[in-house]
Specification:
Tumour Suppressor Smad4, 23 strands, 6-stranded antiparallel sheet, alpha+beta, Phosphorylase Kinase, domain 1, 26% helix, globular, 443 residues
């Protein structure tokens, strides 16, 4: 790949004060190339556009300027920070096309891996962290839409995951636009575009974002395309007209309750048949709402807030099969079997909070929204987390992650303090008095 900016080159831009040194080319796509650069003593990323991109998208500069002024909706976005126009000296010294420009953004930390690696099965990541990544995606686009913006090109290629904790980063934010405006740019990525956008009936916006978000969430949770089933197997050549029919003219969600024409084929599509039943009905219902009926009725698509509620509830419902160790999501009050080994699951102990229930299983956490329904779902400020005993199998404790001392009521009737950073065993716990409210342990 011929680099737009030579490695080691120094780029001076108008209004920046400091020179930019090109460290290395990180990669490129249809719009331009991304470089690691050194700027004002910091490692940063620089995206520089191909001249052909600027010709195709004359409104790109205006969109970028608007994005920079709006600032990032939250920390998940690798947001444009500064527009870069090379000064005359740099234009004369470097092979830069007339009118070309770029922008600075934060450099992606190395622990964030491409989401496509997870879909391909090359990323070691637990179901809990995949669900957390899905939650953070919904949270990010909730923040974006709340600012009156839309993304327009939600897809796997724009997402990076930290497999250790489910954190995400969203790149290519030069697609972002004011919702309802028409400043040009991309329409979306094949397989993720809403049918009305693919067919040219409407421009991308927050409504089409909701459809694309559901496609991306489905693919993260099942590692499969929600519209590739038996109908695709009947197509001899998956060319542009066939894709238009499959994703636009007659999109049939593979698990649509009222249309079984496009069910996954057991031999060709084993992944969704295995993974779909793992998740709770309340979460699966949002996919049916958005990808089945919502494919034809944009007004019926699930909102980001609904995804936040369903995904956080799913995380609360997560347990570990005592027979094989796989993550399971048993329905409360129902007898369930492990999807992996088939063994009957025990009745897991649960924390009963003022606003819900959380399985008392390692890795699960108590959050503010478990005590206050108006707090809004968040995963970044847990007040307590269940930990497994480092040496005794099957023995769990709850660690106080807050800055307040709690009181634990034990089965003996004794009350003991749980200072910040300390844990209490769940073996004899009956009730917990936290700074936010009471919690009962139901066994």
């Amino acid at each position: 790949m011929l680099s737009l900016l030579p490695e080691g080159a120094t780029l001076r831009c108008t209004g920046t004060g400091s020179a930019i040194r090109v460290v290395r080319c990180l990669g490129g796509g249809g719009q331009g190339q991304v470089f690691e650069v050194a700027f004002a003593g910091e490692a940063m990323a620089l995206k520089w556009y191909f001249p052909s991109c600027l010709q195709r998208d004359p409104q790109l500069r205006d969109r970028l300027a608007a994005c920079i002024s709006a600032t990032a909706p939250n920390a998940a976005f690798l947001w444009p920070i500064l527009l870069l126009d090379p000064d005359e000296e740099s234009r004369g010294r470097l092979p830069l096309a007339e009118g070309s420009f770029g922008y600075l953004m934060k450099l992606r930390p190395p622990q964030f891996q491409p989401a496509v690696a997870h879909i391909a099965g090359r990323l070691s990541i637990s179901l809990q962290q995949v669900l957390r990544a899905c939650f953070h995606l919904a949270e990010a686009f909730h923040a974006l839409h709340s600012k009156g913006l839309c993304y327009k090109d939600i897809s796997l290629g724009n997402l990076f995951l930290d497999p250790a904790n489910g954190a995400i980063l969203i790149c290519d934010n030069d697609n972002v636009d004011v919702d309802g405006s028409d400043l040009g740019g991309v329409r979306g990525t094949a397989g993720f575009m809403a049918p009305e956008v693919l067919l040219g009936h409407s421009r991308p916006g927050s409504s089409s974002d909701l459809f694309s978000l559901a496609v991306l969430l489905f693919r993260l949770l099942t590692r499969h395309d929600p519209f590739l089933g038996r109908l695709e197997l009947g197509i001899r050549c998956l060319d542009e007209p066939a894709r238009r029919r499959l994703y636009g003219e007659d999109p049939v969600f593979i698990f649509a309750a009222d249309d079984a024409r496009n069910r996954p084929d057991p031999a060709a599509h084993p992944a969704p048949l295995l993974t779909w039943p793992i998740y709770p009905p309340s979460l699966r219902a949002l996919f049916e709402q958005t990808l089945a009926a919502g494919a034809r009725d944009p007004a019926g698509r699930a909102f980001t807030g609904q995804w936040l509620q369903a995904l956080s509830a799913c995380l609360d419902q997560r347990g570990l099969c005592p027979h094989c160790g796989q993550e399971v999501f048993p329905e409360p009050g129902q007898r369930s079997r492990c999807w992996a080994c088939g063994a009957e699951l025990p009745r897991f102990a649960r924390f009963l909070t003022p606003e819900g229930a959380v399985l008392a299983q390692p890795g699960n956490a108590l959050h503010h929204h478990h005590f206050d329904r108006l707090a809004g779902e968040r995963l970044d400020q847990p007040i307590g987390r269940v930990e497994a005993h480092p040496r005794r199998a099957g023995v769990f404790g709850l660690t106080n992650l807050s800055a307040h001392t709690w009181q634990a009521e034990l089965s003996s009737g004794e009350r003991v303090p749980i200072p910040p950073g300390r844990s209490c065993s769940l073996n004899s716990l009956v009730r917990l008095h936290t700074h936010l409210g009471g919690v009962e342990l139901a066994t």
